[in-house]
Write a structure and sequence with these properties.
CATH superfamily: Class I glutamine amidotransferase (GATase) domain
Number of helices: 6
Strand order of the largest sheet: 3-1-6-7-11-10
Distance between the termini: 10 Å
Helix content: 25-40%
CATH architecture: 3-Layer(aba) Sandwich
Strand content: 25-35%
Number of domains: 1
Shape: globular
Oligomer: single chain
Largest sheet: 6 strands, mixed
C-alpha cells in the first residue's frame, strides 16, 4: 500500500475544514509511511484550526456540527511547495475563504504545473476552480460545487448515489465527500 520511501505531502486546511476530510486522510497517509505537513494561512506549527462535522440527516443539504481541533504542524509562511511531492485539499467551509488567499492559489497551481499528485475532496474543488487549474479537466466534488467546476472550464464528474466514489484523471484524484475516503485514498496512494 505505502511506498518504500515515504513522500512529503502538503495538506492545506483552514477553520471549519471538514473534520473527517482532514483527520482521516492525514492518518491514512501517515499509516502508509508518508509525512504530511498541515498548513493554514496566518498559522504556525503548534496552532490549530476548528473543524466541522458535516452529516446527511434527511434535510435538503448537510447539517454541520462542531468537530475537533486539528493541529497545524508547519508554518504556512515557510512553505516551499517545490519541496513537496503531493497536495491534499480537504473540504468543508475552509476552501470558500482559503480561495481568497493568493499565496494558497499559487501553491495549488504549482502542483498542477509540476504534474504532482493532488487529492481534493468535497468543497476542495472551490480552491481548484479559483486557482484556474480545472480547464479541460474532470473533477468530482460535492454536488453543490458542480457549477463552480463548470464555470472554471472543467467537467463535473457525478458521484455515486452513495457518495463513496472517487475519480482519477492524470494527477488529480477527486471525490464528493467523506464517504468516499476508501476509494479516494486508495487512488491517491496509487499515484504516490
Amino acid at each position: 500500500m505505502g511506498s518504500e520511501e515515504g513522500k512529503r505531502i502538503l495538506m492545506i486546511v483552514g477553520d471549519f475544514v471538514e473534520d473527517y476530510e482532514a483527520m482521516v486522510p492525514l492518518q491514512i497517509l501517515q499509516c502508509a509511511g508518508h509525512t504530511v505537513a498541515t498548513v493554514c494561512p496566518e498559522k504556525s506549527a503548534g496552532d490549530s484550526v476548528a473543524t466541522a462535522i458535516h452529516d446527511f440527516e434527511g434535510q435538503q443539504t448537510y447539517s454541520e456540527k462542531p468537530g475537533h481541533r486539528f493541529a497545524i504542524n508547519t508554518d504556512f509562511d515557510a512553505v516551499e511547495e517545490a519541496s513537496y511531492d503531493a497536495l491534499v485539499i480537504p473540504g468543508g467551509r475552509a476552501p470558500e475563504y482559503l480561495r481568497l488567499n493568493q499565496r494558497v492559489l499559487e501553491i495549488v497551481r504549482h502542483f498542477f504545473t509540476a504534474d504532482k499528485p493532488v487529492a481534493a475532496i468535497c468543497h476542495g474543488a472551490q480552491l481548484l476552480a479559483a486557482a484556474g487549474v480545472l480547464r479541460d479537466r474532470q473533477c468530482s466534488a460535492y454536488p453543490a460545487c458542480a457549477p463552480e467546476v463548470a464555470a472554471a472550464g472543467g467537467t463535473y464528474v457525478e458521484p455515486a448515489e452513495t457518495m463513496d466514489s472517487a475519480h482519477t484523471e492524470g494527477n488529480l484524484v477527486s471525490a464528493p465527500a467523506w464517504p468516499a475516503h476508501p476509494a479516494w485514498m486508495r487512488q491517491f496512494l496509487r499515484l504516490l
